[in-house]
Amino acid sequence: MANTLANTSDVISKMKKLYLYIFLFLMICNSGFAGVLDQNKYICKDESNMGRTEINILKKYDDSYILMSENLGFGLVLVNFASIVDDHLINFSIDGSFETVTTGHLYPPENNKRKYVSSTFSLHPEETSIMKSNITRFNDAPNKIPTQNLTKDELNSEIEIFKNIKNVVDQFSGEPSWGSTVYYCDIGENTDKSQSSSKIPPGYIDILRNGCIDRAKKNNNLNEVTLNYCECYSNWFKNNLNEEEFGEFLYLSIEDKKKFIKKNKINQKCYKP
Description:
Elements: H1 2-29, E1 41-45, E2 52-60, E3 65-73, E4 76-85, E5 88-95, E6 100-106, E7 114-122, H2 125-132, H3 152-169, E8 180-185, H4 202-218, H5 224-240, H6 243-250, H7 254-263, H8 266-270
């Protein structure tokens, strides 16, 4: 009887250890996205709240590689292949015209903040040559990406291209030649935008008004009617949107901005000939 109890106790002990090993193994296997990709959308702002970028996770290919988009504002959106490296998400954006590469690093939350760092580097001729020989099917606007799906061979090709670009970037030393921007991203709280009391910075309202006036000047249409329209137009945003909502408006495409203005009848309210 004593031997039976001892054997039973030993079996239970071994089973507990086995369950622990399995649990730890699963934790390790799933740690690729843990802490970094715990959201599908990240709204990030710099310390001044004037700069903003929006990151969306479009597709996860495996435990290390994903497809993401970054909305840089004013209708400029780029889709990029990205990877989890050393607990943070890295993406690269190549600009052949200016011979630059922009790196983006999205970090896990720390002290209730999540940091995203975007840095742009100039490329030397030999580096540009390497970049041009590693052309990704992405690094473009969403409407120019035929499909997000990849065959096994296509995925392997994208991984190889990513690694080749990373090898070049890893050789960079010193400060980014075009500078860096540090953003702090939301960490998943569901905020009620309608309850936000943050007002649009006065500088943004001035930019709206002055931009409107400049367009009227270029069209040789600056008069009392257009001046009143520009004043009314800028004040509509001041009186009807908070800072968060205005930021979302700025990040709309030109067509979506037109739809927004039409939906809210801003022209009808402000244009009085």
